[in-house]
Write a structure and sequence with these properties.
By secondary structure, the protein is of the alpha/beta class. Helices cover 28% and strands 23% of the residues. Strands 1, 10, 13, 14, 15, 16, 17 and 18 form an 8-stranded mixed β-sheet that branches.
Length: 388
């Protein structure tokens, strides 16, 4: 019987289709290093609650949480009960704050798993207390609004009085800064003073505030007075600066990118001068050009807003994105890249490429938080370093 079609598995073309379209390499050593930089910034006495919501900003909550626990984190913070349970189920035993609270039906499970919901509404707190298992107390963190106009109690006395029950244990008190990522914004000091006033109010009502915390990554950099008993870094841990002001304390931090987002070349072709590229021909070649098509697009998390604005790294050389980024493909100009080939690895940001996620976010008209978290969960995460 004649052989069916046989492929040369060593050929670049076949290899290009056998490996993932894209991958995120997660450097856990860089994460540990960044945690050390946060520790250096706040000093040894301030506790660090590491924010690992949204799958640790797209990096993977479980391996990130485990690494941060080994590094010395005091607590972790997530958005939902399901995120917290996933961490518990995989062996993470740090205190876990649930920033968006929980439903009363989950109180028994929260007590069993030693989870700490954030609560900002007196009626909600009473409902939680009513569901506490007999003889046990639900640990909570009380949240107050000092200017964010989002989640947080407006009436400090009302929430404090609702906490005066044997079923509730107030483990901490918090608020959230609204404009700390805008250097030297007057609201930071105003919110700090409002928070201090709230602390006095709840103590007068008979509630001890527990661990006081106010500052996220931006707040930590904006004003050291916001550090209080605990800080809640997120973005800094992943190697990005929340502030662009070179005079901020963040400029002294030696941060390392944790995520390297990589793809590959699917196709290489030549185009004459004056050729339109991509949907709408938003780019036109100005010389005879060599183009490469990447196996990534906005469907996988590379923003369409970077069309004709970004650069990538190929064989150690920068290559501009040309034409409109489409759902599954991006075209780059590799005319000045020596010998680009199908299957070549291409770095979109991070690693040693020198391409910063924060800079790309600015070009895309967004923030680095969104850029990191929008990378599709279908993209494999590969963990590297001594802690992998």
């Amino acid at each position: 019987m004649a052989d069916l079609c046989l492929y040369n598995l060593a050929s670049p073309l076949v290899a290009a289709f056998m490996i993932p379209r894209a991958v995120c390499s997660i450097d856990l050593d860089a994460l540990t290093h960044n945690f050390g930089e946060v520790r250096r910034l706040v000093g040894p006495e301030v506790r660090i609650c590491c924010v690992v919501k949204a799958q640790a900003y797209g990096h993977g909550a479980v391996p990130i949480g485990r690494t941060l626990a080994r590094a010395g984190a005091h607590a972790l913070a997530v958005t939902s009960f399901d995120e917290a349970r996933e961490l518990r189920d995989t062996g993470v035993d740090l205190p876990i704050l649930i920033l968006s609270g929980i439903e009363p039906s989950l109180v028994t499970e929260a007590v069993r798993l030693d989870l700490f919901p954030v609560v900002w509404d007196a009626a909600q707190l009473r409902a939680l207390a009513a569901e506490a298992p007999t003889g046990q107390r639900l640990g909570v963190h009380l949240k107050f609004d000092t200017g964010m106009r989002r989640l947080g109690a407006d009436d400090a006395t009302d929430l404090a009085e609702a906490a005066l029950t044997g079923a509730i244990s107030v483990e901490g008190t918090l608020s959230h800064l609204a404009c700390a990522d805008e250097p030297r914004h007057a609201s930071v000091e105003a919110q700090l003073e409002d928070f201090r006033a709230i602390l006095r109010t709840i103590e007068a009502a008979g509630v001890r505030p527990g661990i006081r915390h106010l500052a996220n990554s931006a707040g930590m950099l904006a004003d050291a007075r916001t550090h209080l008993d605990m800080v809640r870094p997120g973005l800094l841990l992943y190697g990005c600066h929340p502030q662009t002001d070179g005079r901020s304390p963040g400029s002294a931090l030696d941060l390392r990118p944790v995520m390297e987002f990589k793809t590959k070349i699917l196709h290489v072709k030549d185009a004459p001068s004056g050729a339109g590229v991509g949907y709408g021909w938003t780019f036109e070649t100005r010389r005879p050009s060599r183009l490469a098509v990447l196996a990534i697009g906005y469907g996988q998390g590379y923003p369409r807003a970077l069309s004709n604005r970004a650069e990538v790294s190929v064989r150690g050389h920068r290559a501009p994105v040309v034409g409109a980024i489409s759902m599954d493909h991006t075209t780059i100009d590799v005319t000045d890249v020596p010998d680009p080939r199908i299957g070549d690895e291409v770095t979109l940001w991070g690693g040693t490429s020198g391409i910063d996620a924060g800079d790309l976010a600015t070009k895309a008209g967004t923030i680095s938080y969104e850029l990191l978290t929008r990378v599709s969960r279908d993209i494999p995460r590969q963990y590297e370093g001594r802690n992998a």
